[in-house]
Each structure stands twice: as structure tokens, then as C-alpha cells.
UniProtKB/TrEMBL annotation:
Residues 1-23 form the signal peptide. One of its GO terms (cellular component) is pore complex. SUPFAM superfamilies: Porins. The lineage of its organism: Bacteria, Pseudomonadati, Pseudomonadota, Gammaproteobacteria, Vibrionales. It comes from the Bacteria. PANTHER family: CRYPTIC OUTER MEMBRANE PORIN BGLH-RELATED. It is found in: Cell outer membrane. This is Carbohydrate porin. The keyword rRNA-binding does not apply. It is a multi-pass membrane protein. It comes from Photobacterium sanctipauli. InterPro entries: G_neg_Bact_CarbUptk_Porin, Porin_LamB, Porin_LamB_sf.
């Protein structure tokens, strides 16, 4: 009797699973990104990247960190055509700067930076993609040359993409993201329940009136915690993007013109981002212009990037009562020459300038410039600036003004609230000659 019941149950289970398998198609893919290498100087010591800005840097011959990013994706298609897409983003990086499971403080764990599901081709909205979970915004954008994602909305939430409004396509989402323990601090108002968190609502209008113009509007909210009494609790940011299918109309390639403005929580270090403005003031104001593009001509490609940013009543993550003025800009070019199918020469010249009268809230030296030059013989898998893998052997020379000695390679000691000298500036030198090797892969 027991055997008969077990056999009946097994047959029923097999029938159900078989019918489900027929009704659903599965597809598995794995994408990823790897960069890893070593930088040493003329003294025979290992060194870090060299740069002035807290976000980006001229990356060619200037990356010492290892980053491994794996993106396993499962796509399912139902018999009625509905498509489900499930993705995770599993990352290891030698420096962890966000809420990616860096629990033990060393920043070297494996982090789950994404874990979400999408549904599209639904019977009532076949062209719209709905999502929920932990995800990067589909509108994020970075300069590969400067290694900076200056449009960056990440976090846990939900939303939809690709709603046809007639005059434009609309993406919308809500994101919760706090990159440090700020969000876990008790609220400043002890009558509040829970803990403060940065909530951001993002609206993105794409290809407005059939033009290459996109417009993004984002609104932030975060209650004060006990460490940030008096900080901004709200903010609004705007981003406009004009994209060309050529290099500013003068050569093959692509180019983008980006303008960004933010106030309150959407200004300063959180301009174009979410989750980095918890120390901002209500009257913190920021604006930025960025130009990014790649020109192609024959066996040559020329990557270019430039930006200018101005901050008013800016306040760093410290607890200063007042804000101050800050401005920064950078401009650079990376020529890429494909000599044979498997060998290329890359060159990069970049300049950065910082004018921060109260660097890291310490009245530190934050005014001056840095020039960086790199030559990189490169082994290539195939031809073209964007083709990977690449194995690079490089020599990098950098020189900087004494006025930015605190900003260069700065190390902020949270215990003593002081800026500690980095390995470039402790000896009083104002230049360095570095050498190294790096692999960069995406697939």
C-alpha cells in the first residue's frame, strides 16, 4: 500500500514538473568584469593609484586594485510569451565603498551588489519592464577613461522601464541606499521609530520628442540621525543628457554632453547619485558639466573626457557647522593605436584641478593641480578600443602642486579626525614614476 502511494505520488510529481518544463523556456548566461594588476614606483615599492578627486581618476596605468564582478542571469519565457529575468551581481573588490555586505570592516569580502527580478512582455503592458529587488538603475552612465560613474542610482527598491508617453519613454524607480553605517544610527528625534535611510525617487525621460535628449529628475529624503542633526532632509536633482551618434559631428564615434544640478541631499558628493549626501546642508548647491566621447579614424581611436563642478555651501562627511566653496575640473585624452590585430599602443594625458578651501573639513591643502602621463604597450584579443581582454604593460609619470599635498592619496583617520599623509606625499616629493602590468576583461 505504501509503495503504491509512493509510486502514484512520483508519477503525479513527474507529470506536473514535465508540463511546467514544456510551458517554460530557460536560458542561463554569465557576464562579468575583471581588472587586476600591480603598480610599483622607481624606489621598488608598491604604490596606490594617484589622483586628486574622491570619485574618478585617469585610469590607464593607474589602477592597483583588483575587482571581479560576476553576473549570473536566468531568463524564463512562459508559454504565453511573458519573460522573467533574474540576475545577481557578485563582486569582490579590494576596496568596498558601499552597503555590499562589508560587515567585518576590511572591505575584502564578496559583496552582492545586485539581486533582482524583472518581468516584461506582460499581457497588459507588453513593452514595459517591471522590476523589484536590489539593482543598478538602467540609466547609470560612467566615463571609462576617467573611471567615474557620474550618473549612478543603485539600491533596493522597485520600478518600471520603457513606458511610452508618446513624446518620450519613461523609466521610474524608488531606491533605498546608504553606503556606510549612517543609516543604522538612531534617529535624531527619539520619538521616531526605525532608522534613517536615503530614499530616492528617480524619473528618467528618454529621447524626448524623438531627439537625442534625455532628462532625469530625482528627489531624495532622509531623516536626521544622531550624528547629523541639522543636515538636509530632502533634495532634488536634475540631469540632462544630449547624445550624438558621432564625435561632436566631426568624426566617427560617439559623444555625450551632460549637465547636472542638485541641492540639499542631491548636491555635493551626491550630485548625480543617491546615498552620499547625508552631511549636506539645506542650502548646499552643486552643478556639473561633463563631456565624454570616443573618436575613431582608421587604426586610431581617441577617448576624451572633461568635467567642471562647482559646489556652494559644501560640507564633507565631517560635522562642520558651516559649508564652504569648492570647485574641481579635469580634462584628458587617451589615444589608442591598433598596430596589429594583437598589439596596440595606448597613451593617456590627463590633468585634474581641485580648489577646496577646507579639504575634508580640516583646513587642509586642497588647491592645485595634477598632471598624469601614461604609455602602455598592450596585447589585445582583437582590434578596437573597446575589445577585451587586454594585457597592458605601462609606465606612468605624475606630477602635482604642493598645494594639494593633503588631497593627493589622502587617508582620513576617523579616530583622530585628522588627515594622514599618503605614501606619495609623506616624503615631500611632488612627482612619481610608476610601472606596472594589468589585465582588463569583460565578457
Amino acid at each position: 500500500m505504501k509503495a503504491s502511494k509512493a509510486l502514484t505520488l512520483s508519477v503525479l510529481t513527474l507529470a506536473i514538473s514535465s508540463s511546467y518544463a514544456v510551458a517554460t523556456e530557460y536560458d542561463f548566461s554569465m557576464n562579468g568584469y575583471i581588472k587586476a594588476g600591480i603598480i610599483g614606483n622607481s624606489d621598488g615599492n608598491r604604490v596606490d593609484s594617484v589622483g586628486l578627486m574622491p570619485d574618478g581618476k585617469w585610469r590607464l596605468g593607474n589602477e592597483q586594485n583588483t575587482k571581479i564582478e560576476l553576473l549570473p542571469t536566468i531568463q524564463m519565457k512562459a508559454e504565453n510569451g511573458t519573460i522573467a529575468r533574474i540576475r545577481a551581481n557578485i563582486t569582490h573588490e579590494t576596496t568596498c565603498t558601499a552597503d555590499w555586505n562589508c560587515e567585518d570592516g576590511d572591505g575584502k569580502d564578496v559583496q552582492f551588489r545586485e539581486g533582482y527580478a524583472e518581468l516584461t512582455n506582460l499581457d497588459f503592458a507588453p513593452d514595459v519592464t517591471f522590476w523589484a529587488g536590489k539593482r543598478y538603475s538602467s540609466s547609470n552612465y560612467s566615463s571609462h577613461q576617467y573611471d567615474w560613474e557620474f550618473i549612478q542610482y543603485n539600491g533596493t527598491g522597485g520600478g518600471f522601464d520603457n513606458v511610452d508617453l508618446g513624446f518620450a519613454r519613461l523609466d521610474a524607480g524608488i531606491y533605498a541606499f546608504t553606503p556606510t553605517s549612517e543609516g543604522s544610527q538612531p534617529p535624531a528625534d527619539i520619538s521616531d521609530q526605525g532608522y534613517p535611510e536615503d530614499y530616492s525617487i528617480k524619473l528618467w525621460l528618454k529621447q524626448i520628442a524623438d531627439t537625442p535628449i534625455d532628462l532625469q529628475v530625482v528627489a531624495h529624503h532622509m531623516n536626521n540621525n544622531v550624528n547629523r542633526v541639522g543636515a538636509a532632509e530632502s533634495g532634488i536633482g536634475l540631469t540632462g543628457v544630449y547624445t550624438l551618434g558621432s564625435f561632436y559631428g566631426v568624426a566617427d564615434g560617439f559623444s555625450k554632453f551632460v549637465f547636472q544640478y542638485g541641492e540639499g541631499l542631491a548636491a555635493g558628493d551626491s550630485l548625480g547619485k543617491n546615498g552620499w549626501g547625508w552631511a549636506n546642508l539645506d542650502d548646499t548647491r552643486s552643478w556639473r558639466v561633463a563631456l565624454d566621447g570616443v573618436a575613431s579614424k582608421g587604426n586610431w581611436d581617441f577617448a576624451t573626457f572633461a568635467f567642471y563642478q562647482s559646489d556652494e555651501n559644501y560640507r564633507w562627511w565631517s560635522s562642520d557647522n558651516n559649508g564652504w566653496e569648492r570647485s574641481s575640473w579635469a580634462a584628458g585624452i587617451r589615444p589608442y593605436h591598433q598596430i596589429t590585430k594583437n598589439f596596440a599602443m595606448q597613451y593617456e594625458l590627463g590633468y585634474e584641478y581641485l580648489d577646496d578651501e577646507n579639504f575634508m573639513g580640516q583646513n587642509g591643502n586642497g588647491k592645485g593641480g595634477l598632471t598624469k602621463l601614461t604609455i602602455a604597450p598592450t596585447l589585445t584579443f582583437d582590434t578596437g578600443y573597446w575589445n577585451r581582454p587586454q594585457l597592458r604593460f605601462f609606465a606612468t609619470y605624475a606630477t602635482w602642486d604642493e598645494g594639494v599635498s593633503d588631497a593627493l592619496d589622502a587617508n582620513y583617520d576617523w579616530g583622530s579626525n585628522a588627515i594622514m599623509p599618503g605614501n606619495y606625499t609623506a616624503s615631500g616629493k611632488t612627482d612619481t614614476l610608476n610601472f606596472g602590468i594589468q589585465a582588463e576583461v569583460w565578457f
